[in-house]
Amino acid sequence: MTPSRSRRYAYAIHPLHAVMLAGALALFLGAALSDFAYFRSYEIQWQNFASWLIVGGLVFSAVALLFALFDLRGAVRTRGAVIYALVVAAMWVVGFFNALMHARDAWASMPGGLVMSLIVVVLALVATFMGFSTARTGELK
């Protein structure tokens, strides 16, 4: 009997979802780098840059969270999709508290703001990896 190849494609995320997820990662990473620059130089403008980058990251991650929640209501609800939605939700919540931390006086936002920015970047990396890691390979029968 000849082996037949059946294609089984994983569910890929929507292109706009991918752009929002990658944009959130870039903005949160920029905020963490701005926080690090402020931590090293105490130039207040770096803290202002970080605040604006966090707001942009929150907007992008909110759209990505909406996409993740809409994916959960679909017929293909897997454990990975639920974990992905929880990671994106955690990224948004920690990012929101990071924005509140940065709303304080610039001197009072350190080092807590830098630590929270690093946590948000790690969550964004995990969410981006989970969002883009879909196996698109066929299997032999």
From TrEMBL:
Keywords noted in UniProt: Membrane, Transmembrane, Transmembrane helix
UniProt keyword annotation of Transmembrane present: yes
Residue ranges occupied by any DUF2231 domain in the UniProt entry: 14-134
One Pfam family this sequence matches: DUF2231
InterPro entries linked to this entry: DUF2231_TM
Highest taxon above the source species: Bacteria
Transmembrane segments: 50-70, 82-101, 113-132
Official protein name in the record: DUF2231 domain-containing protein
Organism: Luteimonas yindakuii
